[in-house]
User: Fold this.
Amino acid sequence: PEAKLRNAITTLECNVSRVPDLSTYAGLESLKINFSGGFKGTDLNGLGRLAKLKSLTLSTGQVMYGDVRATLQSLSGLDAPLLEAFDATFLDLADIDALSGCRKLKRVNIRGNRRITSIDSLKPSAGTLEDLDIGSCSGIASLKPLREATRLRILDLVGLGLITDLLDLKKLAHLEMIEPSGCERLTSFTGLP
Assistant:
């Protein structure tokens, strides 16, 4: 009876101080994990396979002025092949390589993770990606993984001070909005469709 109940749950929000084991929640489609302020995680190992998950939000929960923010170093251990929406802002992430196993991503928001230096892991989902917020990910120096993101409509590049050109965006014919403020090394908009 308990397993049947767990499998029937499609949406879950949890407030935790460690990565929860959700491998027995086989029916999860939408998950929000609010990490407590003292959380200092290395990865998502232990989370379990989330075969039906379409939406994942990793959050620091409510943070008041002066509060310690939760941090997570890596997405390693994330196993959600059907994931379409991913949100993990200001978690101090450095490694998002596990997103390469999520080939159906449509919306990704990793704003404020300054230690991320590469978005190569988004290349496998380039054909489905529609909305990308990498604002304030100041370690990112290349947009090359977005060359084939032909469905991309919204792109936030705020504060990407290492970006020098937009030539990798020339095939993005559906781009409706781009926010390049704070891209201090950007000298030209050549490359925009």
Summary: The mean pLDDT is 94. The two ends are 55 Å apart (CA to CA). The CA atoms of residues 94 and 116 lie 4 Å apart. The first strand starts at residue 11 and ends at 16.
